[in-house]
Amino acid sequence: MATDTGDSTLETVPIASGTVTVCWRPSRQARRISMRIDPRSGHVIITLPRGARRADGLALLRAHSAWVVAGLSRLPPVAELRHGGRVLLDGAALEIHHAPEARRGVWLEDGRLHVSGEQDFIARRVGAYLRAQAQLLLPARLGIQAGQAGLRPTQVRLRDTKSRWGSCSSDGTIMLCWRLVMAPREVQHYIIAHELAHLRHMNHGPDFWLLVDELTPHRRQAEKWLHTHGASLHRLVPA
């Protein structure tokens, strides 16, 4: 059965090892059929350019079903944001403690994240708290690093991106994924340094990487952490 979600359509599709959820995504810009796994939803995203048939997308899916199954198996489990569950902030795992009688919203105390109100709203409130922390902390940390480096972005924006942790546009606007607030400080420091370096070098050439290494000592450590744990940040909190 297919379900419409705006311009995209979700459909459960059988493959040799079971079923997968395919998100059919039409595109006027795409020149060829492409396929990827969304680390957040676990859906297989198949992009169809103008004039492409679903049958061709299904053929691509079934030809690469082993790759799809392997990719899905590597996804970390979706964290349950409930009493006793855990969520990350600055790389520290915080236990979620439901305090139904309290009237304080969400607050951090004694290494636990306390959540008041009804149980059904725990996930929503934890997500809102983390977004608020990201808005409070990430631009301020970027400002400190930018000042130390003598670099000035024109704007800093937070978004909920799926494939990039940050970006820098030609007009000097830096974008950071708000989910970075869950990563260790060293990882945040590296991503911020990476984007600041683009203010001087809009490429990934040797001079760019030399500047990155001048701006942060955490490049290798952060890249390794993101390779190992990055996908889990997309699975911790609902969009």
Automatic annotation (TrEMBL):
Gene3D superfamilies: Metalloproteases ('zincins'), catalytic domain. It comes from the Bacteria. Pfam families: YgjP-like. This is M48 family metallopeptidase. It comes from Komagataeibacter rhaeticus.
